[in-house]
Amino acid sequence: MPPWASGRRRATMASMSGTKKRFERQVKLVRDLAAASREYLPMPPGPTPLAGPLEVVAKFAAAWESKDAAAIGSLFAEDADYVNVVGLWWTSRHSIQRVFKRSFKDEFKTATFTFEKVSFRQVGSDAAVLHGRWQISGQVDPEDEVADVRRGMIMFVLEKVADASWLIVSAQATDIAIAADTLIARDGQLTATSYVPEVPNLPDPEPGSV
């Protein structure tokens, strides 16, 4: 092996070793942050309303139906994250409750919210992820005209807290765009679109041909 090749090999190995060490430091940092989050998760001033993670479905829907922003806020940790359907990101129980309070006076004042389907996954003993498909009907537009029905998805990440009850620590909602698989940006506007070719309408087979 020529001397220059040996030197290049040593440099490559040193680079790989440095990358591995940086990765290990990043992993340790993430683990430390996760541990700190579990230890210092802010608690609400009173008893939390969720005795189990699946209760979030009924509690959230009931609070939405009664237009009770405070009840929705009580389901979240003080430092919870909520990303709405257009990417607005709220980072506290107070801001989440404030936005729902305004929405219940405006676009959702006559609207109804229901869960159509729910998927649940327990992650260890103190965390859970829940996906729900929802429907909103009766929403009004800025001119106070009733809009069409919306369907979408919401994801809740919940954590068991010190009193063995559960709080939402993160949530994200998105609308379902019919006959689309992604969005495309043009002139500052997002449009639902599809890259999947349409299946042609085929004639029914003749009797006895199949």
UniProtKB/TrEMBL annotation:
Pfam families, per the entry: DUF4440 (PF14534)
Recorded superkingdom: Bacteria
Residue ranges occupied by any DUF4440 domain in the UniProt entry: 55-168
InterPro entries in alphabetical order: DUF4440, NTF2-like_dom_sf, Steroid_delta5-4_isomerase
Protein name, UniProt field: SgcJ/EcaC family oxidoreductase
